[in-house]
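Honest question from a wet-lab person: if I give you the sequences of every part of a complex, can you actually get the arrangement of the whole thing, not just the pieces? Trying it with mine:
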Amino acid sequence: MDLIREHPILDFKHGRKVRFTFDGEELVGFEGEPIAAALHANGIRIYRLTPKRRQPRGFFCAIGKCSSCFLVVDGVPNVRSCITPLRTGMRIETQRDKGVIALDAE
Amino acid sequence: MIRVRQTEVLVIGGGPAGLSAALEAASLGCQVILVDGDLALGGQLIKQTHKFFGSKDERAGTRGFKISEILLKELKNHRDRVKVHINCTATGIYKEDGVVSCVIGEEEYFRIKPERIVMATGAQERLIPFPNNHLPGVYGAGAVQTLMNVYGVIPGKRVLMVGAGNIGLIVSYQLIQAGVEIAGIVEAMDKVGGYWVHAAKVRRLGVPIFLRHTIKEALGDRVVTGALIQEIDDRFQPVGREKKIDADIICMAVGLTPTCELLWQAGCEMIYVPQLCGHVALRDQFMRTSLPHVWVAGDAAGIEEATAAMVEGRIAGLDAARSLGKGDKEDLTERLEDLQKRLGDLRGGEVGQKICQGLACCSIQGWGA
Ligand SMILES: Cc1cc2nc3c(=O)[nH]c(=O)nc-3n(C[C@H](O)[C@H](O)[C@H](O)COP(=O)(O)OP(=O)(O)OC[C@H]3O[C@@H](n4cnc5c(N)ncnc54)[C@H](O)[C@@H]3O)c2cc1C
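Yes, you can. This is the full assembly:
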């Protein structure tokens, strides 16, 4: 992972190491840290494709405002990956569409 | 039926402004709910590793993330009165009945019906138009700071910084501290906009600063691999040859704009004020908006600094509590006057002039009865 090992001011305390998948590939990240940070640390920059022109989008604002970093998590689309904490076993996928909101089963 | 939570004061946003508002309202005995969409409280402060400028009273000389720790410690003293929800975004505010809808994570919605609201939603980063500015690798400066200073992730190998104001300079220096190479800093004006100390630090490290230059285009097929930059003349028209810069990150530090969607939705009277960097709510001297139950504080009220955000937050929190009949009248008048004086002092310098001009456009001397 692309992590800062030495820093003159900061001392990073990471969460527990957990496994998750991105488009089927198994990766490792820190629990409780944003999904976007975990993907970035694994060298992944493209999180979704725009519905019409299929242009790649990724991380941008990191405060849950811009919708650039949406992806699909455990089947739920439009997840703001910059402010959604990583959990063990998450199934994360590139978002390729607008996403469909699942209706609750009665 | 979903229960609607009730509270005396709802504070939206847990940056320096919101934390200060929550603290003061609770100190006067109010029941407070504080919501923040992020995974930790502190707003912009938790990303700031440099020692803050501003007034000593407002902790100048202390590193940003330490100021946040101090505020959080203070908040702990009011644990019994302040209910904090993180990873909780206020998504809507309904004029008809004053209900605020919130979502925890992405799917767990609930409603709050507060008696008073303090909006402390901070700011959003600006982007400028250029071909391929959508490519992954074009990141906001705040986002780059979040990756490296909060989560310890190396943002990239080689960064082109756009903007030589304080944020562009500070983030460039922080990138170097994190071991990242800076390809250069592009600035449209003919001089560096940030404070001299910050410019001196990056200059000393040999970072090239391209004054009177702009970014023409981001290069790359799927992700950023570089950029074209070009000199511009007095009318911001391109002149001379384009230069190609290799970089995997283009970091945008071209300014912030207040996050004001909820203020619009609530129906606050708004006005565009260039000096405050966007649309802001009209407010009285106690930060109360045109809606008698809504206050605003911090960058959401106009882009300024954390020091001013904290004082505005305190004013808003105290005044909101006062409107609920809390506290001793005389004591409150005195405290509010003292805080207003501190704000005036903060805005006394040269940088404060622009802010004061902006405030003259959106300040109301009391809303009347
Ligand atoms: C690189 C950099 C350097 C800086 N240096 C200095 C300095 O040296 N001195 C100084 O005084 N200032 C400095 N500042 C400015 C300072 O950080 C900001 O002015 C200050 O943080 C503003 O505080 P705030 O509380 O208004 O907003 P923020 O700190 O932006 O906090 C807003 C909070 O609201 C939350 N939020 C927004 N919308 C919602 C919603 N709908 N629901 C729930 N939560 C929401 C956000 O998650 C965030 O936590 C710097 C800023 C930057 C970027």
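Two things worth pointing out. Residues A 63; B 12-18, 35-38, 43-45, 48, 52-54, 89-90, 120-123, 142, 166-167, 170-171, 259, 262, 298-300, 304-307, 309 surround flavin-adenine dinucleotide (CB under 6 Å). Chain A has one helix and seven strands.
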